[in-house]
Write a structure and sequence with these properties.
This protein is of the alpha/beta class. Helix content is about 30%, strand content about 25%. It is built from 8 helices and 9 strands. Strands 5-8-7-6-9 form a 5-stranded mixed barrel. Helix 1 packs across helix 3 and helix 5 crosses helix 8. The structure holds hypoxanthine.
């Protein structure tokens, strides 16, 4: 653990970005498992590998390359995290959300957070895109919460509201883009579990009974920290696999399947994100 406060850590990481980028984007994008190729859509990016950013936790999972890109995408300046770290890798909730704190310090106003998730809702299929309307923070409810510990009032308030964590205007914008592009979305509740093991059939049935439509191992800590810091959030899940809810079910989720589904659905996710960027007006 660093002896620096979270504020100082985020400042030091942000300072490196400021020193490299002439323009500091006000839109952040976090790419999930298998979604890294989206970074290639940025024209002439400034690329900063995470190991050049002080305090940045480094990814230990295949499929997460771990670098920050700054550049133009669909007419906007964006700051893109290609690869993220997860709680199951052994990092604390505070560490995994440092990139969001860094964005906050840089003045980012909107963040588009993506992930690959298992479908819990029986109507969902592999390759579907789901707009996240709400979440269940299993990991955080159990105490592994990124805001646990003394609150730094410079970063946000002690008891932040999560009743509208996913920005209504951004959701409406994404729906409009979907209609314009003829992309059909799902919408639903994302539940975070710690992982790294996939869920048992009983756990999947429990998650369904509790109101989850999709399950994954990321995103929620980032969303909580973004909201704490006043950043507006659009969350998008790519349903990379159908989850197993009985011993008879044929499917068995694997990391390879998660990555593969990402490849197939990437063009739709790309056009959704680019459509949102084209029409997004920052206020
Ligand atoms: N479970 C948990 N996390 C996941 C899954 C899953 O089935 N697929 C992608 N991330």
């Amino acid at each position: 653990m660093s002896d620096r406060t979270l504020w100082e850590q985020a400042q030091e990481a942000a300072a490196v970005v400021r020193s490299r980028c002439a323009v500091i984007p006000r839109i952040g994008i976090v790419l999930g498992s298998g979604l890294g190729p989206l970074a290639e859509r940025i024209s002439e990016p400034i690329i900063i590998p995470y190991d050049q950013l002080p305090h940045m936790p480094l990814s230990t999972v295949a499929g997460h390359s771990g670098r920050l890109l700054a550049g133009r995408l669909a007419g906007q300046d964006v700051l893109m995290m290609q690869g993220r770290v997860h709680y199951y890798e052994g990092y604390s909730p505070q560490q995994i959300t440092l990139p969001i704190r860094m964005m906050q310090q840089l003045g980012v106003r909107v963040v588009i957070i993506t992930n690959s998730a298992g479908g819990i809702n029986k109507a969902f299929h592999t390759g579907d895109l789901m707009l996240i309307t709400d979440h269940i923070n299993f990991v955080g409810l159990a105490g592994a919460h990124p805001l646990r510990g003394p609150n730094d009032d410079r970063l946000g308030e002690r008891f932040p509201d999560m009743s509208r964590a996913y920005d209504a205007e951004l959701l409406e914008l994404a729906r409009r883009v979907g209609r314009q592009q003829g992309i059909r979305f799902r919408e639903g509740v994302y539940a975070i579990v710690s992982g790294p093991s996939f869920e048992t059939p009983a756990e999947i049935r429990m998650l369904r009974a509790l109101g989850a439509d999709a399950v994954g191992m990321s995103t929620v800590p980032e969303v909580v920290v973004a909201r704490h810091g006043g950043i507006r959030v659009l969350g998008i899940s790519l349903i990379s696999n159908e989850t197993v809810d009985s011993f008879e079910a044929a499917a068995q989720p694997s990391h390879a399947e998660v990555l593969e589904a990402g490849q197939a659905s990437l063009p739709r996710l790309e056009s959704l994100i680019e459509g949102v960027l084209q029409q997004l007006i920052l206020n």
